[in-house]
Amino acid sequence: MVSFAPVLKKAAKRAGGGAALEEMLPKPEPARKIKGVPDDRYLSQMSLRIFQAGLKHSMVAAKWPVFEEVFQAFEPRRVRSMNDEDLEALMGDARIIRHWGKIKSVRHNAAAMCGLAGEFGGFGGWLAQWPETDIAGLWADLTKRFKQLGGSSGPYFLRVVGKDTFILTPDVIRALNGLGVAKGKISGKRDRAAVQEVFNGWADETGRPLCQLSRILALSVG
């Protein structure tokens, strides 16, 4: 097991000291807060991430009030009930981003969210109970259950809503390769499970959440 101490020391030096580094680190939300967020806010954030993929984020964010309007404030049961004609009509609305696959994904994802809400008392209840020691498994389950959440979209969505997760950015992958705990690109279930074990060990060593370990790794090389 590679100690995280040298990584932390290097990142602190690059950041201008330990105090400066701490100010740059994200903090995950507690489980009770994740459980308390309404499902419509989760569907909105999920959809925002999906529409931002491959586009300038500020441009998509500027259009988001219109998305809130046309998707009925992202109330999952209402969105689930939108028919094909409703969705096709949105392709003629120049105020939004007219990407058919992403537009269809909102309805699919609303239905998936309703299913989880019925079982766990809310999407946040499902999210909160998932152990951080298997966050890579959560990425896989998000990809399986929801549309357009493959690649880095699932992890970035989790980071935005406060669920503790590491993110395999190019800098993080470069740091992992430099430490000898990974080789080349990290893709596939086996590679991600191996990286998860490394992060779990570092979490035990440092007492830090995954999101902070991830950011420190990135700052140590970038």
Write the topology of this structure:
Blueprint: H1 5-15, H2 18-23, H3 31-36, H4 39-52, H5 57-70, H6 76-80, H7 84-90, H8 100-120, H9 123-129, H10 135-145, H11 153-161, H12 170-179, H13 188-206, H14 210-221
Helix pairs in contact: 1-14, 4-5, 4-8, 4-11, 8-9, 10-13, 12-14
Structure description:
The protein has helices at about 5-15, 20-25, 30-35, 40-50, 55-70, 75-80, 85-90, 100-120, 125-130, 135-145, 155-160, 170-180, 190-205, 210-220. With about 220 residues, the protein is mainly α. It folds into 2 domains: about 5-30 and about 165-220, no CATH class; about 30-150, Hypothetical protein, domain 2 (Endonuclease III, domain 1). Helix 1 (about 5-15) packs across helix 14, helix 4 runs antiparallel to helix 8 and helix 8 (about 100-120) crosses helix 9. The longest helix has 21 residues, at about 100-120. The two termini are about 25 Å apart. The relative contact order is 0.16.
